[in-house]
Amino acid sequence: xxxxxxxxxVGGLLRFQVNTKIESFLPANDPSLTAVEDKARSFGGDPIVxxxxxxxxxxxxxxxxxxxxLLAVEGKLSRLPDVAAVYGPATVLNQIxxxxxxxxxxxxxxxxxxxxQAEQAARAAGLPATTVTARGDQAVAAFDLRYGSLLVQGxxxxxxxxxxxxxxxxxxxxxxxxxxxxxxxxxxxxxxIAVLVRPRENLDQEHTSHLVSAVxxxxxxxxxxxxxxxxxxxxxxxxxxxxxxxxxAPLLAGLTALxxxxxxxxxxxxxxxxxxxxxxxxxxxxxxxxxxLFGWLGVSMSFGAxxxxxxxxxxxxxxxxxxxxxxGRRRVLVTALASAVAFGxxxxxxxxxxxxxxLALAVGVVMTxxxxxxxxxxxxxxxxxxxxxxxxxxxxxxxxxxxxxxxAVAAAGWIGLAGASIQADPRDLAQGLPSLEDxxxxxxxxxxxxxxxxxxxxxxxxxxxxxAWSREAExxxxxxxxxxxxxxxxxxxxxxxxxxxxxxxxxxAGLRVLPTYITSAVIRPDGxxxxxxxxxxxxxxxQQARLLSDLRAALPPPxxxxxxxxxxxxxxxxxxxxxxxxxxxxxxLAGIGAAAVVLFAGLRRRGDAARGSLAAVxxxxxxxxxxxxxxxxxxxxxxxxxxLITVTACEFTVLLxxxxxxxxxxxxxxxxxxxxxxxxxxxxxxxxxxxxFGLVLAIGVAxxxxxxxxxxxxxxxxxxxxxxxxxxxxxxxxxxS
Length: 737
Fold this sequence. Notes:
Mycobact_MmpL; four-stranded antiparallel β-sheet; membrane; transmembrane; transmembrane helix; RND transporter
């Protein structure tokens, strides 16, 4: 059986995956996320951005060798697996050149047809050969008079080919040498170019990481001349976070295990030193079984996997220590179950990565306790639960003022929760990582690092009314939010050469002239959806929420029969922020309530269950008050403080209520240290979000222990002392009486 379990565990661990794709930080099954997925299905996901900066203006595009290399790179990128589309300046130029050549060929073919028709008519009329030729020359002359001037105006720099530098310069740059506005999304400045690699929809983290790596290697192999090459974008950031998670998870777990070994071996205990390591072995086995279970179920974890192992080793190992050293196995098992349901209550969070962490911790606690029960079969020789306890007695005139003070501080913390700020800046997630530094540099060059999309849907988004609406919407957004929102690519900008009020026929003709490669970036092939892409900077979600709300209100009403929507990752992030802010009390009270139900149902003494629940309320309130006084912000992880602090507050209170003498209390005190170790082990993490989480929860563990002690002192249990054993003389006296 051991071999079978070990084999299944190893197999599950090999199947376990870490997935930090952006969807794990957004509300699942929410319309805002559905809109992001629909946009990715039609036009591709948020792009991987390849930014090339050169010392000389226009160096890459006007150098024939470099332009050829760039075209080859863009072609290779478009053929990579999981790529929906690639937009780059070389391909844009090549497609425009091909379209122009096709147009010239059509004009030349039409010219030949006009000559042939005129000559055929002259022959049919029986005119001589010289007259037939003259009639053909006259027809061609009229044709040339009409179209020749257009060709001269349209091709002032010669033939449309990439080998013609004047053609390249005229298409991309204006008379001042600056990039034309319609090409800013691939040529942001004279000294930089950008290649956008849009992945297909529903790309998981493994394939996203492979795609980012493939883009890096493809660009590196091209040997393009550039002072700086930056590869960034949302997929590159999530891939960087995933790599960091894979590196940090075993490192932090090892650091926690080392601290646990030192604590278990060096701290005096009543068991032999080899047996002191049983709690660590149980927590390691429980953690492995948890990850293996997730692997076999095909459930991946987000970056919360970094926190999972340290927390399970720190908090989960407390229960094997209790089983080994304390009386009342029932109490230990009930508190373990209460801890599991408190962790599991994080499932109420709208964010998948918070739910995953909570459920994994709940399963991990259960697994650890089961392993501990299998390893520790002997019963403790501690006194039974109804033995008399040595309690600190305080006079009522001292006890009640202290209780009121403790409750008042906690109440202040709970009241302050309503107005506490939530730190919801996506940059905090990757703070300290090279991928964030690359994103910030690209933002400085490109003017934006994220995308907001205005989607127009209906039976015909190519009508003159729809194009006019697109132009009006772009002007309204630019005029009101020009400092924060910049147009990247819109139908009106792409078809600006048609003039202010093109007809239906002119729009159709313009779309035939433009390459499908370019028009597909803004118009779906079936003509029922168009996309306006605006660039925004990564920033605090709360501030962006107001910006997006104002942007939505600034859009003009769409034409009859059409509907519009604002989509994009910033919109989904704003939705997640709103859900988090609205559910802050539910997130904190859910764990306390769930743990209280378990304690009241499982403990024989309901008073201990009530004290444990009260300690959780007090500890959470004290921690929240401390955060408010310190001027700190809550994060998506620490927002559910109540559910997390409940684990230790109930545990310490219930077990201290039955701890007999100094040895029993000392075991629980060291369990407090052990739990804090699990949180403090997150401090070396390079992810700021996890560092803050570890620090705040370590303080919460200390508050839990203090709250447990305070509750037991200020609200002592009323238990009669055990009756002394009767002597023989007493027995005789009782009989005679």
